[in-house]
Write a structure and sequence with these properties.
By secondary structure, this protein is α/β, with parallel strands linked by helices. It has two domains: about 55 residues, no CATH class; about 270 residues, 2-Layer Sandwich (Nucleotidyltransferase, domain 5). The protein contains eleven helices and nine strands. The strands form two sheets. Strands 1, 2, 3, 4, 5, 6 and 9 form a seven-stranded mixed β-sheet that branches. A two-stranded antiparallel sheet has the order 7-8. The longest helix is centred in the C-terminal third of the chain and has 19 residues.
C-alpha cells in the first residue's frame, strides 16, 4: 500500500496529500458487507476501485491468475528491445534448478530411471546441492517470406502477411552450486551471485561492450517470481539500487512471470539439458572422505564440498546451444547487512529519510 500511495502522490497535483491509513480505508481491502467496509467506503461513492489482495500461495488457483498474458508480453517486449542494443544491454534469465541429492537414484528427475517403492528415498536437504542456473540470453531472428500467402478468406483478422519472423531464445549457460543445508537461497545470495559472475574473465563477453571493453550500462534479470527474487519485494529493490550505484549502471530491471507460470522462464530449457546429462552419470557419493557423519558437522561439510566438486565436473560436460555449460562453486556474500536492511524497512517514510546507516562492499569475499 505504501508503494500505491507513493504512485498516487507522484501523479496527482502538488497540493494533494493522503495518509497511509486513508489509503487502506478507501480501497477494496475490506469485504463487502463488513462493518469496516460500511464505515469507510461501501455505498459512499468514494471507493478507489483498487485491490491489493495477494494471490494465495497454496491451492489450485492457476486458472484465476489474470496477469499471465501481461507478464509474458512485457518480458517478450523488454527482451526484444534489449536485443536491438546488445552492446549496452545484458539480459540474464536465472532460476534455481531442482535439488540434486547424493546417494539417491530418484527425486527431481535427476538420476537414472529405476524401479523402487514409492517415496522411500531421502527427500531432505542434508545431502543435497542447489544448482542456480544463469542463462545469458541471446535472441536470434529469422525472416521467412512466403510467395504464396494465405487467401483472405482464411485469415482470422484482416489480411495475412506474406512475411513470418521466427524468434529463437538461446545463449550461454552458467551454473553456481550451493550446499542446500549451509547455503540456502536468499535475497542476498541471489544478488551476490551476480558479483561472482562479474569477476569471471570467461564471462566478460556478456557483461562488457566488445568494442570499448566498458561495463554494459543496462542489466535485465528475468526471474521466476519466487520469494527471494520477487520484483515487488522491498529488499530486492534496495539491493538492485545498490548494485546500480556500485556498478554505475544507467538502469537495472528485474522482471518476472505471473504466479504459477515460472516454467515460462527462459532458463528452464537449460535445466532440461542438465537433467538429461546428470541422469546418465553414476550416483554421487556423500561419504568419500568421512562415513556416518552428522549433518552440520565439519566432516559433513567437507563431504558435501566433495559432492559439489564432482557435480561441477558433471555439469561442465553438458552442452546447451552448442556451447559447454560453465559451472562454478557458490560464493560468500559481497553485501551481508541483511539485519540493517530489515530494520530500515520497518521504519516510517520520514525515519527512513533521517536514517544515517551506511553499508560497505566486501572485496573478493570468494577468496
Amino acid at each position: 500500500m505504501a508503494l500505491a500511495r507513493e504512485t498516487i502522490l507522484a501523479t496527482d497535483p502538488k497540493d494533494f496529500t493522503i495518509s497511509l491509513s486513508s489509503s487502506y480505508n478507501y480501497t477494496q481491502n475490506y469485504k463487502k458487507g463488513t462493518l469496516e467496509a460500511k464505515r469507510h467506503h461501501e455505498g459512499k461513492g468514494v471507493n478507489a476501485i483498487i485491490s491489493l489482495h495477494r494471490a494465495p500461495k497454496t491451492a489450485v488457483v492457476k486458472e484465476l491468475v489474470v496477469n499471465a498474458h501481461f507478464c509474458s508480453a512485457a518480458i517478450t517486449f523488454i527482451v526484444d528491445k534489449a536485443a536491438k542494443f546488445p552492446e549496452t544491454t545484458m539480459v540474464v534469465s536465472k532460476d534455481a534448478k531442482a535439488l540434486v541429492r547424493s546417494e539417491n537414484s530418484l527425486g527431481g528427475k535427476t538420476w537414472k530411471v529405476t524401479e523402487l517403492p514409492d517415496h522411500d528415498w531421502d527427500q531432505s536437504k542434508n545431502n543435497a546441492i542447489t544448482p542456480m542456473g544463469h542463462l545469458f540470453l541471446e535472441s536470434k531472428y529469422t525472416v521467412h517470406s512466403s510467395l504464396n500467402p494465405l487467401p483472405d478468406d482464411l485469415s482470422i483478422e484482416g489480411k495475412s502477411s506474406p512475411t513470418t519472423v521466427h524468434v529463437t531464445r538461446t545463449g550461454k549457460a552458467v551454473y553456481l552450486l550451493n550446499l542446500s543445508v549451509y547455503e540456502p537461497e536468499t535475497v542476498f545470495r541471489c544478488v551476490n551471485e551476480i558479483f561472482k559472475l562479474l569477476v569471471e574473465p570467461s564471462l566478460d563477453e556478456h557483461f562488457r561492450d566488445p568494442d570499448s571493453g566498458k561495463l554494459k550500462s543496462t542489466f535485465v534479470f528475468v526471474v521466476d517470481n519466487g520469494p527471494s527474487e520477487c520484483p515487488s519485494s522491498s529488499m530486492v529493490k534496495l539491493l538492485l539500487v545498490r548494485m546500480a550505484k556500485y556498478l554505475n549502471l544507467d538502469r537495472i530491471l528485474q522482471i518476472a512471470n505471473a504466479e504459477y507460470y515460472s516454467k515460462r522462464n527462459f532458463v528452464e530449457i537449460v535445466h532440461a539439458s542438465v537433467n538429461l546429462h546428470i541422469q546418465r552419470q553414476a550416483v554421487l557419493s556423500s561419504s568419500k572422505i568421512f562415513s556416518e557423519v552428522q549433518p552440520g558437522s565439519d566432516e559433513h561439510h567437507k563431504n558435501m564440498e566433495c559432492v559439489a566438486e564432482d557435480l561441477v565436473q558433471t555439469i561442465q560436460n553438458a552442452k546447451f546451444g552448442g556451447h559447454y555449460i560453465k559451472c562454478f562453486r557458490g560464493i560468500g556474500h559481497t553485501v551481508d547487512d541483511d539485519k540493517k536492511l530489515k530494520t530500515l524497512l520497518v521504519l516510517s517514510e520520514q525515519r527512513k529519510l533521517e536514517c544515517e546507516e551506511t553499508y560497505t562492499i566486501k572485496v573478493k569475499p570468494w577468496e
